[in-house]
Specification:
single chain; alpha/beta; TIM Barrel; Rossmann fold; FAD/NAD(P)-binding domain; 18% strand; globular
């Protein structure tokens, strides 16, 4: 039954709003994401499926990944462009699929500037970006004027292809943003120097796009509300630019947070929810057109509060629409508790993109792969046993039950979660609470029988058509003299709270678990839960008024709860195997808290004096009161082995199949795909 806006509890979020000559059905934009789907052989079909699914989920506007307006602006050699009319027209089926579901679709126009991974990249001034090996060529006056026309032509191409509008990317350190701040604009001509000159480039682009596309075409401008770099814009310059952009013809101002080279986390899990809402509020105070808040907004409650508070008129969420394409629809139907919440892990979205793979999602394997999954119920329902209630087991059980199978899940402990219960103890990873909530809710909604506190025996599994073994992992205990010393604890004991570390700690192992444990040991919980504390930790002005919104060095040392030494046998840099989009955050956080890292270590023994090692061939004693083993995992297969001895066929998934770190991404994907195969 349809609920009223008041009955949903989210009347502001779901209420219509006017933007330009359009009326939007609610206050939610699916923000732009690079998907790399366009690089796949069936790219158009996959994009249609991807965007149409999110339109069915009732986002008011969907913004595509960035299209360059010319050859100079491509992010990489394979980056998408929209400067060719005939190529642009091939995108029409995507637009039509979205519009048929009641949403608007806008093409993002993005010139990468000095971030372009091409030799001939360009910028206002020839200053190399720290994240790019190429030094840009300084644009001439003719280059600048041609680029303005290129933006207008690109917008006209998008209009011809059926897009309802464009989003002009003026934030996150890309070309337009580079013109607006003295950090990257050292020019002394009409395009640099004074604030008026530095703002001329974006203003002229908006004017040109409006002139080329007419009054009915929607123009969103993505303004940098907090650069988070030295020599970034102060709030008065941001407000002035916002006013000029409104006057030039923009219909909506979306807010971007931080440059890609910034040393402050902006969207990953260490950032508190809604941390940047005040930055959007500063922009809203300067203009009369709708302003959009963005970044680390992942629940309807936060979104509603931002709009009700008057800090923004709308919200933009990108990754949350990977996690759950039906986010808005579920809110409207009074099913907010069924939203599969984005946990800001970046493992399958940004990390996939940075490794040249199509976008995905840890908590939703369907994201970006919609054509590989079915939603139709099973033709022949089966009786399925799932042993283990961790990520893999929950995903398999929930999906199998959703497809109509008779599912029983056995979990030896009294709670679901498995290794997720350890992972969510790490700073910021309490977002895994949402994953547990979602999958538990899905299992109960679809009738899976939960046998908590029951360790499945071989006899319990007789009569099932399918037996799924998702029994997870156990910590690997190295063969080392003194390994049973009272000072030694496993990562599982520490993260679960079964053991409490002392004041001085050695962490054996510097992989993902080792980094999580080290951060757990030195970080105060408030640093990732409280926006004020987060801002203080990373040198951010909580009012977002200072130049670049910085008031101190983001990497300045911070007090630590403990003295921690992290060790690894490998000679490579610690954390090299971590996700590319988050490892710098972890490294910097540990460095700020004084964590020492030793590489190329040979472990010798443990005794009352501490951990004995060889470093560079020389003996050394790490004098600590706690030694934590983060030395890998072993698959727990005892039940699988017993069943095999009885001739019972089983399928192993997750850690039981392969004990590789705490890999929830692989575990959930395997669970869902297995259930799809029944």
């Amino acid at each position: 039954m349809m609920k009223s806006l008041d009955e949903t509890g989210y009347w502001a979020l779901l209420s219509p709003i006017s933007a330009g000559r359009r009326t939007l059905r609610n206050r939610v934009i699916m923000g732009s994401m690079h998907t790399r789907l366009e690089t796949e052989p069936d790219g158009i079909a996959r994009q249609i499926a991807f965007y149409a699914e999110r339109a069915r989920g009732e986002a008011a506007i969907l913004v595509t990944g960035g299209f360059s307006p010319n050859a100079d602006g491509i992010f990489d050699p394979d980056g998408p462009r929209i400067d060719d009319r005939d190529e642009a027209l091939k995108l029409r089926p995507i637009c039509e699929a979205v519009q048929a579901e009641g949403s608007l679709i806008c093409a993002q126009l993005l010139h990468a500037g000095r971030y372009a991974k091409i030799e001939d990249c360009v910028a206002p001034s020839p200053i190399r970006a720290p994240i790019n090996r190429y030094t840009p060529r300084e644009m001439s006056d003719a280059d600048i004027r041609r680029t303005i026309l290129d933006f207008a032509e690109a917008a006209a191409n998008a209009q011809a292809a059926g897009f309802d509008g464009v989003e002009i990317m003026g934030s996150e350190g890309y070309l337009i943003n580079e013109f607006t701040v003295t950090h990257t604009n050292k020019r002394e001509d009409d395009w640099g120097g004074s604030v008026e000159n530095r703002h001329r480039f974006p203003v002229e682009i908006v004017r040109a796009v409006r002139a080329a596309c007419g009054p009915d075409f929607l123009i969103i401008y993505r303004i940098s509300a907090a650069d988070l770099i030295e020599e970034g814009a102060p709030t008065e310059e941001i407000a002035a630019l916002a006013q000029k952009i409104e006057k030039a013809g923009a219909d909506i101002l979306n807010t971007g947070i931080g440059w890609h080279e910034a040393r402050v986390p902006t969207i990953a899990y260490p950032v508190p929810r809604g941390a940047w809402r005040k930055a959007a509020a500063n922009v809203k105070a300067a203009v009369s057109i709708p302003v959009v808040a963005s970044n680390r907004i992942n629940t309807p409650d936060i979104a509603e509060d931002i709009i009700v508070s008057g800090e923004a008129d709308m919200v933009s969420m990108a990754r949350p629409f990977l996690a759950d394409p039906h986010f808005v629809k579920k809110v409207r139907e009074g099913r907010a508790e069924e939203i599969n919440t984005c946990i800001a892990c970046n493992q399958a979205c940004l990390d996939f993109i940075f490794s040249d793979r199509p976008v995905g999602c840890l908590v939703n394997p369907r994201a970006g792969r919609e054509t590989e999954f079915r939603d139709t119920p099973a033709e022949l329902p089966r009786k399925v046993a799932v042993v283990g209630g961790g990520a893999a087991g929950m995903a398999a059980a929930a999906e199998a039950a959703r497809l109509g199978h008779d599912v029983t899940l056995f979990e030896a402990t009294d709670e679901l979660g498995g290794q997720l219960n350890l992972a969510r103890a790490a700073p910021g990873k309490n977002e895994f609470n949402e994953t547990l909530r979602y999958y538990t809710g899905q299992m109960r909604k679809h009738g899976a029988k939960l046998r908590l506190g029951q360790r499945a025996q071989a006899d319990d599994l007789e009569g099932f058509d399918h037996v799924v073994i998702a029994t997870g992992v156990v910590p690997r205990i190295p063969d080392l003299p003194g390994i049973d010393h009272p000072s030694v604890a496993t990562y599982a004991e520490i993260l679960s709270g079964a053991r409490v570390a002392g004041e001085t700690v050695a962490v054996m192992g510097a992989g993902g678990i080792g980094h999580d444990v080290a951060e757990f040991l030195v970080t105060e919980p408030a640093e990732v839960h409280n926006t004020g504390t987060f801002c203080s930790t990373w040198g951010v002005d909580p009012e977002f008024a200072a130049p670049g919104s910085l008031v101190s060095d983001p990497l300045a040392p911070k007090p630590s709860r403990r003295r921690v030494v992290m060790l690894q046998r490998k000679t490579s840099k610690p954390g090299v195997g971590l996700g590319v989009s988050t490892r710098w955050i972890l490294r910097n956080a540990l460095r700020k808290h004084g964590v020492e890292a030793l590489c190329g270590v040979v472990y010798d023994s443990i005794d009352d004096d501490g951990l004995h090692i060889l470093l560079d061939g020389k003996p050394r004693v790490i004098a600590v009161d706690t030694i934590i083993l983060c030395t890998g995992q072993e698959p727990e297969r005892s039940l699988a082995d017993e069943l095999a001895s009885r001739g019972v066929a089983v399928t192993m998934i997750g850690g039981a199949k392969e004990a590789a770190e705490l890999d929830a991404l692989r575990a959930i994907d395997e669970g869902v795909r297995l259930a799809q195969s029944f």
